[in-house]
């Protein structure tokens, strides 16, 4: 992430100067894109630092969701500073035109070429980090996922801007460069929407991965003292933190001391089998057969299994 931040700061300055000197709407759109990316890297660095704070009385489940909150702010930054400004530049270019000299085109294309190399190097570094963290499993980290999305769209955005400038230079029609700005804006709005939607789902309480829930249910079903598993609920509390709440019906005939012993053993078994399950709660029930048939686990209602 530090590599991405350094690259974005250098690129933002180069694109901004090049865009002002060349009067290029596509290059100015890319400058706004890089400024938004730089601000977002600061957000994500704050997320990494703040999410590692230990639990306290005010936040007994820890600060893991800080990552999701700052990722949401990063998505808003991409939308406002990148997408909206790019749309503005495209519309302005169509409305007023853009008079660029040959030297302006050349300078702009050189800046975009250097930017492509820098953004490509940052993207390669981010993808390498994803592979180190287990491929698709690494993309569960909202900070890393945002960096990959930013770097991927940056490479594509630079390509669009270069194509638009080249076609403008060849044809003399500003519509090509304006179209490139609009395309960059649409790309950034789409990326911001996807990142924001993911952050929203995690903030309001997204369940753990289906395979994690399945492992927990299988473990509970295998316990000889459990007659039936009524429901298993999970919530992602952070990158490596999952809250588990299960409603189980124990076999008849267990006294209170035995129930407590069984509950403690089951909790420890879940925590040792599913490392991210650091908060486990068991609700022991003794429900009549008729009520049991209407339970979420039995009926298959969403959220019950």
The class by helix and strand makeup works out as mainly alpha
Order of strands, widest sheet:
1-2-3
Tell me roughly what share of residues is in helical segments: 55-70%
Q: How many strand units? A: 3
Shape: elongated
* Separate helix tally: 10
Q: Outline the biggest β-sheet.
A: 3 strands, mixed
Q: Roughly how many Å is the radius of gyration? A: 26 Å
**Overall pLDDT score:** 79
Please indicate the percent range of residues in DSSP E strands (runs of 2 or more). 5-15%
Uncertain stretches of 5 or more adjacent residues: 288-293, 295-305
Q: Whole-Å distance between the termini?
A: 37 Å
Succession of helices and strands: HHHHHHHEEHEHH
Summarize it:
The chain has 305 residues and is mainly α. The chain is built from 10 helices and 3 strands; from the N terminus they run αααααααββαβαα. Strands 1-2-3 form a 3-stranded mixed β-sheet.
Written description of the protein model:
- Helices cover about 70% and strands about 10% of the residues.
- By secondary structure, the protein is mostly helical.
- It has a three-stranded mixed beta sheet.
- Strand 2, helix 8 and strand 3 form a beta-alpha-beta unit.
- Helix 2 runs antiparallel to helix 3 and helix 3 runs antiparallel to helix 6.
């Amino acid at each position: 992430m530090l590599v991405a931040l350094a690259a974005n700061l250098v690129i933002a300055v180069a694109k901004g100067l090049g865009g002002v000197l060349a009067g290029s709407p596509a290059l100015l759109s890319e400058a706004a894109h890089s400024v938004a990316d730089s601000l977002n890297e600061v957000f994500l660095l704050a997320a990494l630092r703040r999410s590692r704070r230990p639990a306290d009385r005010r936040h007994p489940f820890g600060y893991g969701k800080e990552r999701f909150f700052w990722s949401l702010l990063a998505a808003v930054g991409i939308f406002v500073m990148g997408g909206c400004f790019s749309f503005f530049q495209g519309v302005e270019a169509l409305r007023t035109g853009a008079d660029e000299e040959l030297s302006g085109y050349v300078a702009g294309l050189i800046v975009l070429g250097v930017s492509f190399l820098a953004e490509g190097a940052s993207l390669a570094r981010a993808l390498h980090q994803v592979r180190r963290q287990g491929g698709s499993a690494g993309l569960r980290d909202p900070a890393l996922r945002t960096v990959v999305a930013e770097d991927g769209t940056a490479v594509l955005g630079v390509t669009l801007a270069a194509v638009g400038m080249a076609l403008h230079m060849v044809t003399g029609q500003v519509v090509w460069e304006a179209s490139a700005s609009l395309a960059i804006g649409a790309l950034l709005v789409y990326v911001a929407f996807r990142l924001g939607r993911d952050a929203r789902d995690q903030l309001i309480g997204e369940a753990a991965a289906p395979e994690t829930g399945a492992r927990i249910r299988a473990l509970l079903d295998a316990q000889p003292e459990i007659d039936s598993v009524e429901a298993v609920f999970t919530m992602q509390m952070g990158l490596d933190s999952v809250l588990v709440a299960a409603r189980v019906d124990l076999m008849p005939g267990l006294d209170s001391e035995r129930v407590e012993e069984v509950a403690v053993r089951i909790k420890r078994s879940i925590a040792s089998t599913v490392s991210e399950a650091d908060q486990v709660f068991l609700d022991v029930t003794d429900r009549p057969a008729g009520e049991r048939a209407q339970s979420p686990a039995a009926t298959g209602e969403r959220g019950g299994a």
